[in-house]
Amino acid sequence: MNENALLKIISRMIFPFVLLFGLYIIFNGDLSPGGGFQGGVVMASSYFLLYFINDINMLSVKQILRIEKVLFLLLVLFSFAGVLTHGIPFRGMFFSEILIFKQINLMVLNIIIGIKVTLGIVGIISIFLEEGEL
Amino acid sequence: MIVRILLVILIILAILVVKEKNNLHLIMYFSIFSFTAASVYFLNYALDIALAEVAVGCAFVPLIYLITVSKQNVFTVLIDKEFLHGEDYQDNDLYKKLVFLLEDFCSYYTLELKVVTKRVRYYPTVQGIFRPGNIDLIVSLDEENNHLVITGNKSNIMIPRLDKMTRKYKNIDLIEVDEYEGLDE
């Protein structure tokens, strides 16, 4: 879309670092500030460095929406999985009193939410970008 | 102390966002506003909200505005009536070049071309002509050098792209003007 060489080169250079920062926010979301939503938005903005400036597109909108639906179902199922074992939702499946299992539970939730938010925002801006060009 | 200074800067930036006329500058002011708000949150120990504000307010929302501003679909061109007054203006070499240039440009960026013909001389300033009809370009003839003069608004995002295409033609000049300048200059 844009023909400026400086923008292109710098955006390609900082792309992996922004992606890594997003992953860092997601994986440390249970103990430090951050979490699925914030990390997901940072990861999505790293994807748009490639798409908006360099015109490299790896995913189509249909694929994104399909994966997002599956992830939403997975999120609901994971949240209510505790009902089957000890009758309480939102607590994880096993040993909900032990700290390490609580952490694992939160981390899995953060990862699912992070991927879902990333794909959602990528979908929104892809629809915006591709709207005029048939 | 720092928080109070930042809050004053927030008020100033909010007024700038409302008062600004240029779309691209407005988006940049909005981005700076979000960044300042995020630092206020950070200094008040709301780290989660600061992260979300940086990610959404500084990157996501300005990007959507940027795409929307750059996707205004209709490209309106005002052609001076005095250029088209003769019987055989369609055989004019400049006219053929102009039509070829505009159609090429509009098909490349998937724009819808809309042509209006009026007498440009009645309008004293550029502001009086750009704003009411939402006009992107004004085409008029410079009779001394037999050049075609295209006038565009400086804040329009399509003008630099058109400038790249017009460089190939020797008889067509593109001028960028501010909204408050006179037409004759």
Describe this structure in words.
The complex is a heterodimer of chains A (134) and B (185). Chain A has 134 residues and is mainly α. Chain A has one domain (5-130). Helix content of chain A is 73%, strand content 0%. Chain A has helices at residues 5-27, 36-54, 61-79, 82-86, 99-130. The longest helix of chain A has 32 residues, at 99-130. Chain A is elongated and about 60 Å long. The two termini of chain A are 16 Å apart. Chain B is of the alpha/beta class. Chain B has two domains: 2-69; 74-177, 3-Layer(aba) Sandwich (D-Maltodextrin-Binding Protein, domain 2). Chain B contains six helices and five strands. Chain B has helices at residues 2-19, 23-43, 47-69, 93-108, 127-133, 159-166; strands at residues 74-80, 112-118, 137-142, 147-153, 172-177. A five-stranded mixed β-sheet of chain B has the order 2-1-3-4-5, with helices on one face. In chain B, strand 1, helix 4 and strand 2 form a beta-alpha-beta unit. The N and C termini of chain B lie far apart (49 Å). At the A-B interface, helix 2 and helix 5 of A face helix 3 of B.
Output the number of helix runs of chain A: 5
Structural class from helices and strands of chain B? alpha/beta
Question: CATH topology of the largest domain in chain B, anyone?
Answer: D-Maltodextrin-Binding Protein, domain 2
Order of helices and strands of chain B: HHHEHEHEEHE
Ordered list of secondary-structure elements with their pairings:
The complex is a heterodimer of chains A (134) and B (185).
Chain A lengths: L4 H23 L8 H19 L6 H19 L2 H5 L12 H32 L4
Chain B lengths: L1 H18 L3 H21 L3 H23 L4 E7 L12 H16 L3 E7 L8 H7 L3 E6 L4 E7 L5 H8 L5 E6 L8
